[in-house]
Amino acid sequence: MFFKNSSSKEQSCWQSISLDKAEQNKKFRKLMMPFSNGIGGIFFRIIATILFVIVVNRSIDKDVFGRLLCSVKWSGCMVALISGVLGLWLQIFRWNDVLKSQGLPSGIYHAGKTMLFGNLLAFLTPGRMGELFRGIGLDPHKKAVSVLAVATDRFFAISVTLLTGLFSALAQVVLFKNKSPQEYLLPVLIIVFLIPTTFILVKKYRIHLKELPLVKSRISALKTYVSGLIRLPIKRILLLSVAIHLLLLVQTAILLQMFGSPGILKNIIIAGQAYAFMIFLPFFIANIGLREYSFTMFLKITGDSGMQITAPTIAFGVSGMVLLMNIILPALIGLFWIVLERKRSEHIILPEQENCESQCVQG
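Predicted structure:
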């Protein structure tokens, strides 16, 4: 009888432990869901991206890699890398402010981990769409709120990018007497008009958003999200967004100059328009191919006088460096962090498990 009771007690204990581990694995699988879903769609986009890269870069010189390697300067790379790291650090601070406002787990640890994981998702999905799920594992009861929080974070980033693109286009006309293409200016003007209008309306009436029928309904996620909007430190987030984008422009301008496009101011104007243009075509994995196309287009518009190598070659080199510094390296760090945490969680014995094991031994 003793052995029978002991055996059943031990079985129930180990069952609870396995259930805890199963719950952890289930949570991790949900976190990694964007990697496994839609394999066919992702494969199609990868093929489309590769084809687009081939088409865009068909006019590059045959000895492109030799020319680019000769153009690389360690001082320029270090300044560009430091600008990228500072920009990422400020992005973590901005994201942390959004997390706090929405009542999600916050702090540099949570904000940094999810931001880096978001870079991994952004690298694997077209138009950085996977980044919307970077905070989905923070709170199992606020998954929808976490997606809306990322959308808020991206709204500020995109708004500043588009406004900078418009100012860059105007500066190009004034300083270089060159007009940007109409297919670029028209959507920029429309969206730039809509963004401040939306921003002013939300800022003015965000307290009354709770009274909207949609929000007053049973959709608790919207109620929580709107309550978070009221607490959002908008001025601070705007300042952080401007600083982040300025660092990106400086980084890109330094890389453009390093690869053969003279003039920091001209390069900042090129980068400002190129990044705004990329927002209108969110179809390619990590913007590969689109980045080269954008840089090439605006390099040619501003004029190729003084360029040591062709515009497509410069664009190819700059795009590769931006991809490496701003997306691939953070994505690899994010992947390493997630895998390390998973391994750590598999080896950590939770207090409940420890008590249960001791009971099993005593029984």
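Summary: Residues 324 and 359 are 52 Å apart (CA to CA).
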